[in-house]
Design a protein that fits this description.
About 70% of the residues lie in helices and about 0% in strands. It has about 60 residues and is an all-alpha fold. The chain is elongated and about 50 Å long. The N and C termini lie far apart (about 40 Å).
Length: about 60
């Protein structure tokens, strides 16, 4: 049982870290777009995804 708890704690730390990194990444993209360094088309082309339909959290 102790190993299971340690595993869960480690997983939660990694998950929290990834979520934080993703948030920072999107903030950098949004900042670049606001400064006109990147356009929505640049971002969509780079990722091959239509990011105009991203979650409200990132807008």
């Amino acid at each position: 049982m102790r190993k299971y708890v340690e595993y869960l704690e480690e997983w939660y730390k990694l998950r929290s870290s990834l979520i934080a990194q993703q948030h920072v990444f999107w903030r950098k993209i949004k900042t670049a777009q606001r400064r006109k360094e990147l356009t929505q088309e640049d971002v969509s082309t780079f990722f091959g995804v239509d990011f105009s339909r991203q979650p409200a959290f990132y807008k």
